Amino acid sequence: MAKEDKEKQLLLCRQEEQIKCLYSFGKIETELIAQKNLMEQMTVLFDTKLLAIDKALNVASVTMDKRLDGMNEFRDTLRDQAARFITRDEVKKENERIETDLRFLRESRAILEGKASQKLAYITLVATIVSFMLALTGIIANVLIRIFNN
Question: How does pLDDT run across 35-88, given as a tens digit for each residue?
């Protein structure tokens, strides 16, 4: 009997261990299910975040493209404007030409003023001669009248 009791006890111990193992296995299985659920939630969250990042990246890319297009347009405008500007050499040549023309105009004006002054002198001379002749005529007439009256 003792042997049977021992065998029964051994059998009970084995059954208890099996129950404990099954219980532990159940706990592990429950834990695994919880971990699997957590993993699925994290995967969904990760996918959501990836989609949000992708969308933000697309928006940033579009915004950057518009900004770069605006900058390129501005650069092109500046390049066109710079191409239309006159160079220093061209300005220098034009200024020299203008100075030459101005010098010529000044000399022409001086010549014209000189001619005008000469004309004025001629007119004054003619007026003086005419006045002198009139005065001389008056004196001669006066002398002749005195001679004939006496």
Answer: 788 889 999 999 999 999 999 999 999 999 999 988 999 999 988 888 888 888
In this structure, the number of other CB atoms found within 10 A of the CB of residue 126 comes to 10
Is the overall model pTM greater than 0.70, yes or no?
A: no
Question: Sorting pLDDT into bands at 50, 70 and 90, what band is 100?
Answer: very high
